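B., you asked whether I could sanity-check this one before it goes into the benchmark set. Here's the sequence:
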Amino acid sequence: MINLEEQISLFKIIGSQLKTKVECIAIGGSAMMFYGVKSTTRDVDLVFLKIEYVEAVKKILFDSGFDERKNIRGIFREDEEAGKPVMMDGTETRFDLFLNEVIGFRIHGKILERVLELHEFGNLIVKTASPEDILMMKACTERDKDRDDAAEIMRKFNINWGIVLGETSNQTKIGIAAFPILIYDFLTELKDNYKIDVPKNVIKDLLKIAEERLKELKKKDKLIRVTKFKN
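And here's what the prediction gave me:
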C-alpha cells in the first residue's frame, strides 16, 4: 500500500526519466487519492492512449525494480488477450498500465473532456478520470474492494446520472455489449448491501438500455460472453 505522497514520489521518478512528454489518465484508487477520497492504494492504475507511452513507463518501472506479472486471468472480450493491462509488481505497490480501454470499457474523447484535474511530474502528465467514469470502470470487476471504493465515491460525490446513462449506452456499442447488465447488477448490489441511494429511474433506464441492446444483438445472431476480470 502507498499513500498520496508516495504515489507522487513515484510519478516524479517516472517523469524525470521520460525523454518526451507522456500523458495518462489516473483511474481507481490512484485518482481517488488525488480527490482526497482514499488515503492509500495497492494498485496505481493508469490508462495510456499510445503503446509507446506504455512501453516507456514499463521500462522505467522495470529499471526501478518492478517485475512484470505474466499470469493475468480473465477479461471481457471474445479475444481474452485484448484489453489486458501490463502489471508491474513492486515491493509496496503495483502499477497496472492500460492501453485505450479498462477491462473492455473504452476510453474516448468524452471521457477525456470529463477529466477534472491535471498534474504534471516532469514529462509525466497525469489526468484524473471523473467520479462517474471511475464508478463505471469499477462495475467491470468482481473484487470486493472495488465495491467498497464505488460506495465511497457515491457518498462523496454528487454523481451525474445522466453521464452514467449516456456512457452506458455508448459503451454497449464501442466496448462491452453487456455493460448495462453489469452496471445494473453493480449498482443494485451497492444499493442493497451498502445502503447507497441509487435513483429508481436510473435502475429502470439501465434495464431498458440492456433490453434494447440484447434485442439488437439477437437480431444479428450475436452471443454475449461475460467474463469478469481477476488478478
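One thing to flag: The first strand starts at residue 2 and ends at 3. Otherwise nothing jumped out at me.
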